[in-house]
Amino acid sequence: MRCPIGRNVRPFAMALFASMMSATPAGAYTLWSTSATYLGTGEFHGPGASERNPPLFATVIRNIMFLNARDFVVPFASSATSQPGFCGSRSLPAHERGRLSDGSRINTNIETCATVIGGMRVFPATIGGGLYMGEDMSAISDDGNITMAMDLAMDLGAARHAVIKMQFYATTGEVTVPLSSQTQAGGHGVDQAGIYQSGLRLRGRVGDFNHDGWIDGTLVAAGVMPLDSPLYPGQPYVMVRHFETDIPVDGEWSSNVAALRHSAIAAPSDEQHHGK
Known about the structure:
With 276 residues, this protein is mostly beta strands. It has one domain. Helix content is 10%, strand content 36%. The strands form 3 sheets. Strands 2, 3, 4, 5, 6, 7, 8, 9, 10, 11, 16, 17 and 18 form a 13-stranded antiparallel sheet that branches. A 3-stranded mixed sheet has the order 1-15-12, with no helix packed on it. A hairpin with a 4-residue loop joins strand 4 (59-66) and strand 5. The N and C termini lie far apart (41 Å).
């Protein structure tokens, strides 16, 4: 069974590649996913049978650097005096020092907000020290879909002495809700992520769906919580994240030719995306 999040635009691949070719290695771009973003932030389902989650936590990814027409990266940056930014006050004192409660350094180019997952308040962050060394590494496939990979952590707070760490993947293409780790090992587990049963296929999208001349879309991710997690170990989760960027697209594909040809067009600002 397939559950599409939105229509995937295969012809958009040509326009996307053309847009990336015009991006120089020195150029830096931004991705927004906040309450003011087109369609909002998105949804987090699970882990397991949990259905107590609010909308997906907001995030802003800055300093997106294109290495070539297909690959881009968000470099690792860490600051001992990181600012609260659009999230307001940090929920845990350690975050004001650019670290999680276990000392892991936060990539401050990727700003995230505290959230509730599985009924528990956590602080998600991209951290250094893992497989991707704190960077957000992304690539564009032949069909124009984007895949992102990073080292994700969820901090439950110093009082709980728990930071859940995992390698995280998201795509504008297709993912399948996995079986629980317990079922994969031959036992019996909870094989669902909120409303989504294991085996269901979910599809994201990339294009210019609000016709403003800038790339936007939906990333989907599906995985299982680590077995050493104090929060729903081994149980599946699904993330659906809507996003906008300040990366321009070709006017012929965006249906906004007149605006794109206007010399005064400007990239969306932080204030517009943050709803300020």
